Amino acid sequence: MSEPRRVLLVGASGLVGTQAMEAARGIPGMRLTALTRREAPMPRGARMDMLVADPARWPEAVATLAPAAVICALGTTWRRAGRSEEAFRAVDRDLVLAIAKAAKGAGAETFVVVSSVGAEPHAKARYLRVKGETEAALAQLHFRRLDLLRPGLLRGKRGADRRWLERLAILVRPLTDRFLRGARRRFRSIPARRVAAAALQCAREKAQGRFVHDNDAIARLAHRLEAAG
After folding, report:
1. Domain 5-228: which CATH number of 3.40.50.720, 1.10.357.10, 3.30.70.580, 3.30.830.10
2. Are strands 110-114 and 69-72 parallel, antiparallel or unpaired?
3. Is pLDDT at 115 greater than 90 in this prediction?
4. Which of 50, 81, 129, 133 to pair with 87, CA 20 to 30 A apart?
């Protein structure tokens, strides 16, 4: 019997990360390890490990764990970063890249990152610009497989960490989603649990290359995981 595929989840205490731990239960051939800055409750019946460490030591932890695949669901907000662009970039770009470089050095084949619809290195919006810069830098690391998940507005319980614009968008979501058709479907809202399932499926895929997944592609990946589980 072959060894289960070792998958590392970074950002387990966030919206997508918590859903990924739930979705990982019962997936055949996968052993999930969560890396987090603070202890988070694990789903009942989950067969997984959790490593709590200061973010400054995360690259070292990644190198020690030597996973086959990494799912990075890290992200902060402008408010939590103290409205400092330097602090914002330190998490959404610098820490993500530090983890990716450590994973590549440890032999990881697959890297999956939760980005955002509209990510672009030259975007006017700070958030989308940083996400785009991160995607471009990840591509330069030449993983055997790189998956860029670009969901629309994430739906799920996040509490006080929500930006006020996100809260407003969620309130009007039932109306706005109806009008986002054709090429604009990618801007629709999407459940965080679906993004989490898609990220897990990406970690299981065997095809090589760089893949960009919008809402529709994320839904297809999530469906494949459900079928496998």
Report:
1. 3.40.50.720
2. parallel
3. yes
4. 50
